[in-house]
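Weekly puzzle thread! Below is a chain. First person to post its structure in token form gets bragging rights.
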Amino acid sequence: MNHDSYDDSYIRGILNTVKTIAMVGASAKDNRPSYFAFKYLGERGYNMIPINPGLAGKELLGRKIYARLSDVPEPIDMVDIFRASSHALPIVQEALTLSPRPRVIWMQLTIRNDEAAALAEANDMKVVMNRCPKIEYGRLSSEIGWIGVNSRTLSSKRAQLYGKGVQRMSLNPFGSAAARGEK
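Winning reply:
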């Protein structure tokens, strides 16, 4: 797979099918990018599991923090790596020991490790490198409630409420009815 560009359908397929995301390197500091991404994805209905050995046993936004992937007592669909590229290979190696195995390894913006990607793909896992799921979700859902990415799509369509009154935008590949000029 070409890891320099990803089809929207590939990214959308991942974001539409994963439910439980373990974020390795989640920070409890509310000014860190990993905190924003963790909170954002959790608000959109994903079951977020924070992984951070220095904070193990504490809580992040009401979720218990685990030291390592292998400590998580439930199946993980996607591992979101918020650590330096040099840490990606050991994280993938640990993910491969889990049963069931996660289906996706996602490395955050600026994080790229071709050896880790090749190992994951050789074990039938999907891989995304150098992308942020928060940004990709917002871009593909045409959500414009955040700054920094221009999706070139505006919609007046009201988002459906998900769970406890939180918006969960549709990742419809054809955009919203309003964007297509429909009522």
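Puzzle host: Confirmed. Bonus trivia for everyone else. Residues 146-167, 176-183 have pLDDT under 50 and may be disordered.
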